[in-house]
Amino acid sequence: MRKTFDATQLTQFIGTTGYYRISRRHLLTDGTKYLAEEAECFWMMDAIASHLSEIGTEDWFVQVRMTVNGKRATMIYEDGSGKEHARQEIPYTDFPMHAISLFACWDGEHWVIMLPSEY
Question: Residue 1's pLDDT is what?
């Protein structure tokens, strides 16, 4: 049974005090780790990491927007100014929010995946 997720708790994350490795080149912040654990969406962090590896580091900033429509979702990866890098259709999800936007920044060694409030 899925646990109840309270999205309002995401507002408490301003900046980060910790970084959590999900792969050799990808880190989560306190906020995205909380999101992954509480919303049970480590799959989303893995999808983001996979696309960031393909996008490369020419652009040091990527915005990831996910919208959920019923049990399907679309993830769009863009440069923050509307230029789309990639798009992924998710055929099934039980993600508890209708939409979310995350940021990823290249720090010279890692992609750091964060909530917008942690930017």
Answer: 61
Cα(108)–Cα(24) distance, integer angstroms: 13
Sheet holding 99-106, edge to edge: 19-23, 26-29, 111-114, 99-106, 61-69, 72-78, 84-90
Instruction: Give the integer Cα–Cα distance in Å for 91 and 109.
Output: 32
| Distance (Å, whole) CA 24 – CA 109 | 10
**Would you call 52 helix, strand, or coil by DSSP?**
helix
How confident is the model at residue 82, as a pLDDT?
87
**Between 53 and 113, whose confidence is greater?**
113
Q: How confident is the model over 69-86, as pLDDT tens digits?
A: 999 999 999 998 989 999
The residue extents of the domains of the chain are 23-105
